[in-house]
Amino acid sequence: MARPNTRYVCQACGASHPKWGGKCDACGEWNSLVEEAAPESAPKGLGRAGGRRIDFVDLKGVTEQAPRRMTGITEFDRVCGGGLVPGSALLIGGDPGIGKSTLLLQAVCRLAGSMRCAYVSGEEAIDQVRLRAARLGLRSAPVALAAATSVRDIVASLDAGDAPDVCVIDSIQTMYVDTLDSAPGTVAQVRASAQELIRVSKRRGIVLLLVGHVTKEGTIAGPRVLEHMVDTVLYFEGERGHQFRIMRAVKNRFGPTDEIGVFEMTDTGLTEVSNPSELFLAERRGDVSGACVFAGVEGTRPVLVEIQALVAPSSLGTPRRAVVGWDNGRLAMVLAVLEARCGVAIGANDVYLNVAGGLRIGEPAADLAVAAALVSSLTGEPVPADTVVFGEIGLSGEIRAVSQTDLRLKEAAKLGFAKSLMPPRRGRAGAKGDQGIRQVELAHLEDLLPLFQETTPAPRGRT
């Protein structure tokens, strides 16, 4: 009996290999090759058979836009771009237990009052989903519930006459197509399952919400092509030790990217936070050295968050650098600029940096706030409690302008801050801003040091 042909497919990039190896030659991932049955025949070309001619239309035209479907959860609708678009596919990823299933169950239960909604669970039994709904106080919501993993059965149900308007698939890694021999969760199964589900959702105008698992690196498991197939990709972030959850849009064909929604995990589920700045600063003490308030912008929303730094003498040959909520490489750059351009020696100390509240900051405008927190911890002089800081630092020590300055200042003034340390504004006076907050413009990182002049080493001069 002939041995069936097999191949080894990388679960990270989808590359196929004739034999197993510890490392994928295409993407460099280790231990990602999984054995799958090879197709019985190789795909053939189109040959001479004629295809159906497609119809081209003019680019200039009028397309009637269907109204967005609002869930009533303001933070979720904000991240989606103002509501759910009929016929769109959304992929929601996040760590296990972060609250993905809870949030989507809350969303479809609110939508069920005005449209048909379905929740398909491939990981939990129907009784388990009912228990969660009862705990959230959503037992009476008219949501159609099913426990299934066969894509053929799900597509047949969605393509029926009484198809739902919104459908949740929890999760896409548990779905399988029976024409493939590979196990659920493999590259081929995830790609084929998502393709079939997205095809029927586009044809019937169904809003498709796909839950995706994440890898240990924090990216959605499975082939990267899955993120290209959907219209919107949302990541659910948060630390287990914090009650805050941040939903971030990294791709959105119908709205802005980098938009965030802030939620708080409570006994009754996820509740939205309308003013995240006030929440992030609720436990702040203004007389502690090493703490600085950063005025940031996440998408279209200004967010004020406290950046904490601790500089302590090191007993190790190689000092430690521990960062939570910020980029480790950018911290190394700020430390190098402080030492090379300003003469502030920090290299022999352990450095710990933390963004309070569990928020992760990605914009370079936090450079100046990190530098202020580091110098404050080193000297023991606290940053003034009524001061917010923002600005990008260049390698020569210059402080570069950042976008949406007025939005940052307006949020700071609303929360009672009276002073800002910021980059120079071209063509604007820096004495008293139009936002009711005193603006102190810093052109170089050395201009920050006089705030901590009592114990800061004298600068060596700009080079």
What are the SSEs and their pairings?
Layout: E1 6-10, E2 16-17, E3 33-37, H1 74-79, E4 89-94, H2 100-111, E5 117-121, H3 126-135, E6 144-147, H4 151-158, E7 166-170, H5 187-204, E8 207-212, H6 225-229, E9 232-237, E10 244-252, E11 260-266, E12 269-272, H7 276-280, E13 291-298, E14 301-313, E15 321-324, H8 328-342, E16 349-355, H9 367-379, E17 387-389, E18 392-393, E19 399-400, H10 405-414, E20 419-422, E21 438-441
Parallel strand pairs: 4-8, 4-9, 5-6, 5-7, 7-8, 13-17, 15-16, 17-20, 20-21
Antiparallel strand pairs: 1-2, 1-3, 9-10, 10-11, 11-12, 13-14, 14-16, 18-19
Spell out the key features of this protein.
463 residues, alpha/beta, Rossmann fold, 3 domains, nine-stranded mixed β-sheet, seven-stranded mixed β-sheet, 10 helices
Shape: globular
**What is the name of the CATH architecture of the largest domain?**
3-Layer(aba) Sandwich
CATH class of the largest domain: Alpha Beta
How many beta-strand segments? Answer: 21
Helix percent reads 10-25%
Number of helices: 10
What is the CA–CA distance across the termini? 77 Å
Using the coordinates shown, work out and report the CATH topology of the largest domain. Answer: Rossmann fold
| Total tally of structural domains | 3
The low-confidence parts are: 454-463
Arrangement of strands in the largest sheet: 6-5-7-8-4-9-10-11-12
Give me the secondary-structure category: alpha/beta
**Rg over C-alpha atoms, rounded to the nearest angstrom:** 26 Å
Major sheet details: 9 strands, mixed
Share in β-strands: 15-25%
Question: What is the fourth-level CATH superfamily of the largest domain?
Answer: P-loop containing nucleotide triphosphate hydrolases
